[in-house]
Structures are given as C-alpha cells and as structure tokens.
Write a structure and sequence with these properties.
about 80 residues
C-alpha cells in the first residue's frame, strides 16, 4: 500500500476558470478600493470647500458689522 498522493495536472479549463476567478476578484477589490478612495477625497474636498465658504461668509458679516459700526459712530460725531 503506497501513501503517494496523486499528482494529476489540472485540466486547462480548470486553470482558466481559477485564474479568471482570481483576476475577477482582484479587479473587484481594486475597483472598490479606487471608488472608496475617490469618495474619500471628494468628501474631504467638499468639507474643505464648505468650511472655506462658511469662513468667507463669517468674514463678510464681520466686515459689514465693523463698517456699519464705524459709519454709525461717524454719523453721531458729525
């Protein structure tokens, strides 16, 4: 009784299927990784844009407030 394992070579069809499945899996993982990365960049960019716009609006309001206050004081003095 021999304890030798069979060393039968797989059929070319099985090799093609296995290689195709592995390539498909890697492609899907890569695609999802790219999409996730792009969405992360988009989220960071959008957040930065909103923060910038909010800062600009706050600056504009502060400037208007300061100009209005100075104008009122000048009118009172005149």
């Amino acid at each position: 009784m021999s304890s030798r394992t069979s060393t039968r070579t797989p059929s070319p069809r099985a090799v093609r299927w296995t290689t195709g499945l592995i390539a498909c899996g890697l492609g899907l993982v890569t695609a999802f990784g790219l999409v996730a990365g792009l969405m992360k960049l988009l989220a960071i960019g959008w957040t930065a844009f909103l923060v910038m716009m909010a800062g600009a609006e706050m600056g504009r309001r502060a400037e208007t407030h300061v100009v209005g206050t100075v104008a009122r004081r000048l009118r009172r003095l005149a």
